[in-house]
Design brief:
Elements (H helix, E strand, L loop, with lengths): L1 E6 L19 H13 L4 E4 L8 H10 L5 E6 L6 H14 L5 E4 L16 H20 L3 E4 L4 E5 L11 E5 L3 H10 L2 E4 L4 H17 L8 E10 L3 H29 L5 H8 L6 E2 L3 E2 L14 E4 L1 H14 L1 E7 L3 H17 L10
Parallel strand pairs: 1-2, 1-13, 2-3, 3-4, 4-7, 7-8, 8-9, 9-12, 9-13
Antiparallel strand pairs: 5-6, 10-11, 11-12
Length: 360
C-alpha cells in the first residue's frame, strides 16, 4: 500500500479550517509539513494545483530539496504545460530527487483564460489529456521523438536527463465516461473520491473491463482513494468533533461554495456523485459521513471517514479489499493531523495477520 498525505498549496491562511499560523504558505511552513509527514510514516503528499495559487511544480521542487524520503504528488494540468516542457521538468526533478516524484494529471475546470488556455467541450478536454499523457511517456522512454497529434506536436525531441525505468507514476481522476477511458489506457493509478464501497466496487469493475476492451498496453491499472479522515481516540469523540467541524463549515463556506459552483457552471461528474450521496443518508457503510458536502465541503472534503483508529482503519481496509492500494488522506489542522492520523492508521493498515496454523 501507498500512504500519502496532503499539503495545502496556498498563501492564504486557514485552508479548509487549517491553523492560520505565521508564515503560512512559506517554504519553511510547507517544509515543516513535509518533514512531519516523513516522521509519521507518510511516503509523501499531494500538492494541489489551480490558477491563483503558487505554482505546484515549483513548490514540489523546493520541498523535495529539503526532505529525504518525501515524495511530492504534484498536480499538473495539460494546457498549463506543454508535453515536452513538462516531460523535461519532471525528468529533471525526478533525477535530482532520486526518483521521488509522483504526478497527478488534472483535467478539471480552472481559470484557463488567465494563463492563455482555452476550454473546449468534455471530449476535447479529455482527448487532449490522453494525448498529453501518451506523449509525455514517449518522451520519457524514447529518444528523437517525432509526433503530430490533434493537440500537440514535437519534432526530433529527446528529454534530458533520461528517467529511470518508465518515469514518474501518473495518477489521474475523473468519473465521466470520457475520463474513465483516459484512465483505462493512460494512467498508472486511478484516484477516486470518497464514495461508498458499492460505488467504488462498481467503478473498479468497469475500469478493469475498459482496460481489456481498449487494449491497454501499460502495466495493470491500480486504484487510489482521496478522502478526509476524522480520527480520534474514541468513536464518540470523533463524531462529536466531526459534527462541530460541520457546524463551523456551514457558517464559513456555504456562500463561497455556491459562488464556486455557479462560476464553473455546475460541479464535475465526480463531485456531483459525492453531493448526491447525502440523499442516501448522513452515514453510509460503517463510517462514511456525507453531511459535509451539504455545507460547502468540496473535493476530498465532501465526504469524511469518521471514527476511532480501529473504525477508520477498518473502513480503509474494506476499500483495500476491493483493490484500492493508494490512499491520499487529510484533515485539518494539517500539521497536528499529519502526526495523529499517521500514527493511528498507517501501522494498523500495514500490519499483516499471522496465520496461527502456518506458525504452529
Amino acid at each position: 500500500m501507498t500512504f500519502l498525505w496532503y499539503i495545502p498549496n496556498t498563501v492564504q491562511p486557514g485552508h479548509r479550517g487549517d491553523d492560520a499560523v505565521d508564515g503560512y504558505g512559506t517554504l519553511d511552513h510547507s517544509t515543516d509539513l513535509a518533514l512531519t509527514a516523513e516522521k509519521h510514516g507518510w511516503e509523501g503528499a499531494l500538492i494541489g494545483t489551480g490558477w491563483g495559487r503558487p505554482d505546484t511544480f515549483t513548490v514540489a521542487t523546493a520541498i523535495a530539496a529539503r526532505t529525504t524520503t518525501f515524495r511530492p504528488l504534484a498536480a499538473i494540468r495539460p494546457g498549463y504545460w506543454q508535453p515536452a516542457h513538462f516531460a523535461s521538468a519532471a525528468a529533471t526533478l525526478d533525477h535530482l530527487s532520486g526518483g521521488r516524484l509522483l504526478v497527478n494529471i488534472v483535467s478539471g475546470r480552472d481559470d484557463l483564460a488567465a494563463y492563455g488556455d482555452a476550454e473546449g467541450d468534455q471530449a476535447q478536454r479529455y482527448g487532449r489529456t490522453k494525448e498529453f499523457m501518451r506523449l509525455v511517456r514517449r518522451l520519457w522512454t524514447e529518444e528523437n521523438v517525432t509526433f503530430t497529434g490533434s493537440h500537440f506536436r514535437v519534432t526530433d525531441s529527446t528529454v534530458v536527463p533520461r528517467v529511470a525505468g518508465t518515469g514518474p507514476r501518473l495518477y489521474f481522476g475523473g468519473a465521466s465516461p470520457a475520463a474513465e477511458k483516459v484512465a483505462a489506457t493512460e494512467a498508472d493509478v486511478q484516484l477516486f473520491w470518497g464514495e461508498p464501497l458499492d460505488g467504488i466496487a462498481e467503478r473498479i469493475d468497469r475500469l478493469r473491463k475498459l482496460t481489456n476492451d481498449l487494449d491497454r498496453d501499460l502495466p495493470e491499472l491500480e486504484f487510489g482513494l482521496r478522502i478526509t479522515t476524522v480520527v480520534r481516540d474514541t468513536t464518540e469523540e470523533a463524531w462529536r468533533d466531526a459534527e462541530a467541524k460541520v457546524t463551523e463549515l456551514s457558517s464559513r463556506n456555504e456562500a463561497l461554495h455556491d459562488r464556486r459552483i455557479d462560476k464553473h457552471r455546475g460541479p464535475a461528474v465526480g463531485q456531483q456523485r459525492l453531493l448526491d450521496l447525502a440523499a442516501r443518508g448522513e452515514v453510509l457503510d460503517s463510517c462514511l459521513y456525507t453531511t459535509p458536502g451539504r455545507y460547502g465541503g468540496g473535493g476530498a472534503g465532501t465526504t469524511w471517514l469518521v471514527g476511532s483508529p480501529d473504525d477508520v482503519a477498518g473502513a480503509l481496509r474494506s476499500y483495500a479489499e476491493l483493490g484500492i492500494s493508494h490512499f491520499v488522506l487529510s484533515d485539518t489542522p494539517y500539521r497536528r493531523e499529519t502526526a495523529r492520523v499517521g500514527d493511528a492508521l498507517i501501522g494498523r493498515l500495514r500490519a499483516r495477520v499471522i496465520d496461527p496454523v502456518a506458525t504452529g
